[in-house]
Design brief:
- This protein has 145 residues and is an alpha+beta fold.
- The chain has one domain: Alpha-Beta Barrel (Multidrug-efflux Transporter 1 Regulator Bmrr, Chain A).
- 19% of the residues lie in helices and 43% in strands.
């Protein structure tokens, strides 16, 4: 899948999803790139070894066509992959348990991560009472050990 993304550096619970998605969809309209319907985020930093203030998040939308990236909006091709998948709806500060569950399932079934995890949003993340609420399919690309 080809994505257009904005890289955010900082704690995962402080990502301004709404602002970034507004920019991405506005850019896609401006350059006549056909965006996909389900926005996503990719997490290339390992939260166990990366301090929160240095964590990277790629806030992204799938795109079609061949638009040119800008200084802020980058384009990347994500390879097809087998993935462990789990649905999640709730406060972004407690989504970590979903990742723990997926990691435990991977260990029990002889898999290991093969690429950074991603969250594909079934609804746009929303701010409620100072918290980010996400509705996502958490996908962890895997390969057999």
């Amino acid at each position: 899948m080809k994505i257009a993304y904005i890289e955010h550096t900082g704690p995962y619970d402080k990502v301004p999803y709404g602002d970034y998605y507004e920019k991405l969809y506005g850019w896609a309209k401006e350059v006549k790139a056909k965006p996909g319907f389900k926005p996503l985020s990719v997490y290339p930093s390992d939260p166990h070894t990366t301090p929160p203030e240095q964590a990277k998040t790629w806030v992204a939308i799938p795109i079609h066509g061949s638009p040119v990236e800008t200084e802020e909006i980058k384009i990347k091709e994500l390879p097809a992959a087998e993935a462990a998948v789990c649905k999640y709806a709730g406060d972004s500060t407690v989504i970590e348990q979903t990742y723990k569950d997926l990691t435990a399932w991977m260990e029990e079934n002889g898999y290991e991560a093969s690429a950074p995890p991603m969250e594909v949003y079934t609804k746009m993340p929303k701010e409620k009472d100072g918290k980010t609420i996400v509705y996502a399919t958490v996908q962890m690309p895997v390969k057999k050990k």
